[in-house]
């Protein structure tokens, strides 16, 4: 298959620009917030609460958001999502002004940050399903796997540059003006998005009752062994392998590398994942997908263990880089499963379930890591997470032989034959 097939469609290239700008802004914003909150509190649990403040609204309305996405035009819905993110980033720009720290108590500033993160969680509930659904309207069905790979690669590229730039910008211009840059990228994303035309609504059940719609979406996900197995495995692995939430502690108190080192640590997993994803455009991963996914998550657990016990900066960076490389394998396989196995009229709802299983597990994992660090200590918390990840992989491999034998080669061939 042509490794550049999806890039031959103009609107898909514009979409990649939108996705890059948004992910760059979102990932940079999360890093800046982490740094600011830990600087205010010096409490590892406060880092976990950031994730909790985002996961509560994201999970609470995720299924409802999927229903809304399936019932509405996708381009304009994404415009509203980006406008919502812009409001949040501008609010954080205001609340991090130096004069605010003088006029208000640190707890007041902290609670204001948490409130804005909560609003961002509401936006996130809609943005993931909208993007997932929009991709399918920009390219022919036969190149969905290639489009998913390029979309994920763009996501990872932005995830590399966003955290790295955040770490350096905090040192160069401070938290406040770093937030101004983030707001600028959200405006840039809107500029690109208006160059994509409105798309047709493919759902034949417009006006369908909400609860029936949600029931159908959940029933489809839980009845699909491939989708349900991939989501469950990734959810548990990410939940207990959320060591990245504790990176501010490692950077400031264990490795002593400052904000610049923090940016490098935060970007290392995304660098590894980006290399994996770019390589997968020439070397697809759909053959023996089940076994590859299990081995990838197992290797991820090993990397987290190495990072947890390391006191050397270079070794920590390598461990995080390799964790990202193998996590890229699991991400590509999961996205390929979702794109190939999901009907057009259910993409919003399936993507919402995906956000509950996988997307929210990042934030829940951040809370788990912060709480475990508070109770067990930082290093012990990371080691515990790595061990739980390995246990999850072993259990899945033993109890689900069907998933071990999962192969997507036939599905890819069928879609490539479609006109």
UniProtKB/TrEMBL annotation:
Organism: Croceitalea vernalis
Coiled coil: none
Protein's cellular compartments: Cell membrane
Record-annotated membrane-spanning stretches: 12-33, 45-65, 77-97, 109-138, 150-170, 176-196, 227-251, 263-281, 293-322, 375-399
Pfam families: MFS_3
Protein name in the entry: MFS transporter
Membrane protein topology class: Multi-pass membrane protein
The organism's place on the tree of life at top rank: Bacteria
Keywords associated with the record: Cell membrane, Membrane, Transmembrane, Transmembrane helix, Transport
Gene3D superfamilies: MFS general substrate transporter like domains
Keyword Transmembrane helix: yes
Statement: the UniProt record of this protein carries the keyword Cell membrane: yes
């Amino acid at each position: 298959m042509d490794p550049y097939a999806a890039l031959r469609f103009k609107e898909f290239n514009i979409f990649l620009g939108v996705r890059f700008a948004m992910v760059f802004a979102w990932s940079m914003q999360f890093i800046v917030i982490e740094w600011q909150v830990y600087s205010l509190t010096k409490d590892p649990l406060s880092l976990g609460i950031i994730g909790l403040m985002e996961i509560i609204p994201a999970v609470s309305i995720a299924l409802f958001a999927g229903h809304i996405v399936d019932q509405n035009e996708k381009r304009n819905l994404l415009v509203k999502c980006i406008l919502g993110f812009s409001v949040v980033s501008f609010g954080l720009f205001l609340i991090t002004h130096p004069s605010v720290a003088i006029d208000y108590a640190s707890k007041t500033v902290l609670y204001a940050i948490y409130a804005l993160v909560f609003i961002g969680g509401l936006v996130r509930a809609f943005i993931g399903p909208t993007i997932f659904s929009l991709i399918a309207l920009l390219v022919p069905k036969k190149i969905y796997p290639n489009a998913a790979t390029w979309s994920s690669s763009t996501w990872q590229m932005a995830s590399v540059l966003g955290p790295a730039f955040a770490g350096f910008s905090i040192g160069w211009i401070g938290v406040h003006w770093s937030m101004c840059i983030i707001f600028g990228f959200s405006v840039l994303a809107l500029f690109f998005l208006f160059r994509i035309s409105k798309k047709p609504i493919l759902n034949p059940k417009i006006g369908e009752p909400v609860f029936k719609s949600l029931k159908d979406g959940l029933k489809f996900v839980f009845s699909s062994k491939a989708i349900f197995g991939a989501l469950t495995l990734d959810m548990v692995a990410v939940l207990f392998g959320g060591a990245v939430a504790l990176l501010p502690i490692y950077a400031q108190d264990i490795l002593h590398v400052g904000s610049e080192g923090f940016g490098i640590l935060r970007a290392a997993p995304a660098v590894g994942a980006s290399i994996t994803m770019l390589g997968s455009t020439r070397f697809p991963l759909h053959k023996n997908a089940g076994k590859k996914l299990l081995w990838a998550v197992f290797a991820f657990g090993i990397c987290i263990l190495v990072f947890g016990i390391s006191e050397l900066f270079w070794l920590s960076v390598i461990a995080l880089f390799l964790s990202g490389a193998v996590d890229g394998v699991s991400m590509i396989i999961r996205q390929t499963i979702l794109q190939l196995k999901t009907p057009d009229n259910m993409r919003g709802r399936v993507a919402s379930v995906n956000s509950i299983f996988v997307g929210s597990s990042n934030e829940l994992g951040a809370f788990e890591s912060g709480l475990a660090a508070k109770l067990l200590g930082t290093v012990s918390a990371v080691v515990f997470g790595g061990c739980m990840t390995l246990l999850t992989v072993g259990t899945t491999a033993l109890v689900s032989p069907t998933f071990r034998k999962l192969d997507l080669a036939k599905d890819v061939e069928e879609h490539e034959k479609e006109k």
